[in-house]
Amino acid sequence: MSSDQEKHQELLRALRASQGERDGSFDEAVTRAFEHIFEHLERLNSHVSLGGPEGEDRHLKAGESPTLR
Q1: By CB count within 10 A, which of 27, 36, 40, 63 is most buried?
Q2: Contact between residue 44 and residue 24 where contact means Cβ atoms under 8 Å apart
Q3: Domain coverage including residue 21
Q4: Where in this protein does the record put region Disordered (predicted)?
């Protein structure tokens, strides 16, 4: 299992285990899960092209493949 899948399983276990607890562990588990989601979104955004206002593709950078925008 990849380390990212292991992280997802760990986050899910923490969420399930902390449901109904009144010691702040559920809030902490939710916060950790959202932090991980935001890490994924940052990685995704770094791979998405920044188009103009009309949605057109940006110009390629030197040596950049059009399939890796």
Answers
A1: 36
A2: no
A3: 1-48
A4: 1-24, 47-69
Does residue 2 form part of some domain? Answer: yes
- pLDDT for residue 64: 75
- pLDDT recorded at residue 52: 56
Structural domain includes residue 25: yes
Burial 11-36 (b: 16+ CB within 10 A, else e): beebeeebeeeeeeebeebeeebeee
DSSP 3-state of 66: helix
CA gap 7, 1 in Å, rounded: 10
- How big is the CA angle at 53 (ends 57 and 51), to the nearest 5 degrees? 25
Q: Is residue 20 part of a domain?
A: yes
